[in-house]
Amino acid sequence: MWYLIRTTGLVAYLLMYGSVMVGLFSQIQKRKRKKMTNTLHVHEVLSNWTCILTIAHLALLFFDTYVSFDWKDLLIPFMTDYKPLPMAIGIFSLYLLILTWITTKLRKQIGIRLWRVLHMFTPILYILVTIHGVWLGTDFQKVILLLMNIIPFASFVWMFLVRHDEVEKTQQSPVS
User: Fold this and answer.
1) Residue 140 contacts by C-beta under 8 Å, 6 or more apart in sequence?
2) Distance separating alpha carbons of residues 137 and 7, to the nearest angstrom
3) Which one of 21, 23, 106, 122 counts the least CB within 10 Å of its CB?
4) What's the Cα-to-Cα distance from 23 to each of 10, 50, 103, 122, rounded to whole Å?
5) Residue extents of the structural domains in the chain
6) Residues of the chain by 3-state class (helix, strand, coil), percent to 5
7) What is the per-residue pLDDT across 5-25, written as a single tens digit (0 to 9) for each?
8) What's the whole-model pTM score?
9) Which residues, 6+ apart, have CB-to-CB distance to 176 below 8 Å?
10) To 10 degrees, the CA torsion angle through 98, 83, 56, 19?
11) What is the 3-state secondary structure (H, E, C) of 49-67?
């Protein structure tokens, strides 16, 4: 069971990383007025699979024999006796993921402007999930897991800064 719990969490993390990176990359290309074909579809598919595997990760925790979790431990922050802070970070991440996913599905109904504001929480979601995974990872001492968390996180920060720089450049109007 431990392998299934860990694997669904890690794969969900990597899919979310891919989704975030595709989203940031497509925004950079959009600002450069480059047409990106299929990136929205890839971004959405990665997001959908992130949600599916996150729900599987959560559901599998109910069957963990090492730590007995009940629904309050997994859905209400700080209710568990098992590492309450990193577990709470995971729960807050779950709620941000659900908020992002639902508002994306309803973006036409809620309006693009509100959706964009809500979608700006995605970097916070990614950071929280990274902290949750690093803090709770029982096999964190292994170099491969460290690289799986540090390299994506560093590239995420770089892409976010590039996107932020591109947004600032497009907002500055040239002086005539």
Assistant:
1) 134, 146
2) 11
3) 106
4) 20, 14, 15, 10
5) 2-162
6) 75, 0, 25
7) 989 998 999 899 889 888 877
8) 0.78
9) none
10) 50
11) HHHHHHHHHHHHHCCCCCC
Exposed/middle/buried for 107, CB within 10 Å: 0-12, 13-18, 19+?
middle
Residue 139 DSSP SS3: coil
Amino acid identity, position 36 = M
CA separation for the pair 98, 75 (Å, rounded): 12
Query: Do 123 and 100 meet the contact criterion of CB atoms below 8 Å apart?
Result: no
pLDDT in tens, 90-123: 999 999 999 999 999 999 999 999 998 999 888 8
- d(CA 161, CA 121) in angstroms, rounded, equals 15
Residue given tokens 């907002």 in the structure block: 171
Among residues 22, 75, 21, 11, the alpha carbon closest in space to that of 49 is found at: 11
Q: Report the chain's C-alpha Rg in angstroms.
A: 18
